[in-house]
Amino acid sequence: MKEEFLGIWADVLTLEQARDRVRAMLGEGRPHFVASVNPEICLAAGRNRELRQALQQADLGIPDGIGIVLASRLRGGALRRRVTGIDLLQALAEMAASEGKSVYLFGAAAGVAAAAAANLTARFPGLKVAGTHHGYLPPEKEGEVAAIIAQSGADLVFVGLGSPRQELFVVRHGAATGARVLMVVGGAFDVLSGRLRRAPLLFQKLGLEWLFRLWQQPRRLLRCLALPRFLPLVLLARKK
Prior knowledge:
alpha/beta
């Protein structure tokens, strides 16, 4: 089941169901795109045609944002919980470790993806990290990174370049990586590396991770204003 938010689709599912969907994708002979759907992304897609078209090609759209869940509830939808990108990333790393799949981390500043990979391997013994690469490079060099990933033989690629760059990378270069699943993860590497702290569990349960993140990164204030703009647009769109 899926729900539509301003033209962008999010899947109605749990973390475990999302993990199992990706497991099935890894067994298929083509690349798959796992997108993250939140209010900011939906609003940005309304302004950016390339981003909108990229998101519409996603094989799975996880409801990563309390605003998505709230909008669904207010209009009588079926979504009742978030599936955050960082939680799914960790669930997939655990699955990869137990099933012999390899992962590649692409994005963030120099050294951050490598540190995140080291922490993941410490947490999930047996995890095969095919490689890491920072995201501080011009777009015209992204094809070269795709070739490096292909040479690594990675099954699953986590792409943390920020939106819309990460979504466009998957659409433009996903097939060239040779991976079966490419998942966009935003700033997850910063948290997994220890560079940023994740919100305490209480904040996570209350859907207030954004507030904790804002405390750590005040420059995100404008991004946090997406929710007040998003909810009225979604509710009005449903009434038309």
